[in-house]
Amino acid sequence: MKPFRLSREARRDIQEVWAYIARDSIEAAGRVRCEIRDACRRLAHHPYSGHSRGDLTTREDVLFWPVYSYLIIYRPDRKPLEILRVLHGNRDVTRILG
């Protein structure tokens, strides 16, 4: 079984991150994408390493983990670990998460 599962939105988020960074550097875009994937794998092994963010959501079923300026938003109680979104910290995370 895979250690984590990316939602459709998370897959799209990661692709958008790569495309945005790749405008300046394909190499840097690849590094960031690898760092995000590596963080997801580590979180799958230690799912409660993240933290809640009451300033961003009232949802109690999600945790957050930073990678550079991005936030991995995930559900630690799922097997495999469910990655919901990967969003830049400057985005309106509260609105996006609803």
What does this structure look like?
The chain is an alpha+beta fold and 98 residues long. It has one domain (4-89): RelE-like (YaeB-like fold), CATH 3.30.2310. A hairpin with a 5-residue loop joins β3 (70-75) and β4 (81-88). The N and C termini lie far apart (30 Å). The longest helix is centred in the middle third of the chain and has 20 residues, at 26-45. Helices cover 41% and strands 22% of the residues. It is globular, with a radius of gyration of 13 Å. The model has no long low-confidence stretch (mean pLDDT 95).
Strand % is 15-25%
**Distance between the amino and carboxyl termini:** 30 Å
Question: What's the total count of β strands?
Answer: 4
State the helix count: 3
Biggest β-sheet strands, sense, barrel: 4 strands, mixed
Class, according to the CATH hierarchy?
A: Alpha Beta
Q: Could you say which structural class the secondary elements and strand pairing correspond to?
A: alpha+beta
CATH superfamily: RelE-like
The third-level CATH topology is YaeB-like fold
Helix content estimate: 40-55%
pLDDT < 50 runs, ≥5 residues: none
Radius of gyration using CA atoms only: 13 Å
Named CATH architecture:
2-Layer Sandwich
Q: What's the average pLDDT?
A: 95
Spatial strand order of the main sheet: 1-4-3-2
Order of helices and strands: EHHEEEH
The rough form would be described as globular
Q: State the domain count.
A: 1
Structure keywords:
98 residues; YaeB-like fold; alpha+beta; four-stranded mixed sheet; single chain
Provide the fold topology.
Elements: E1 4-6, H1 8-22, H2 26-45, E2 63-67, E3 70-75, E4 81-88, H3 93-97
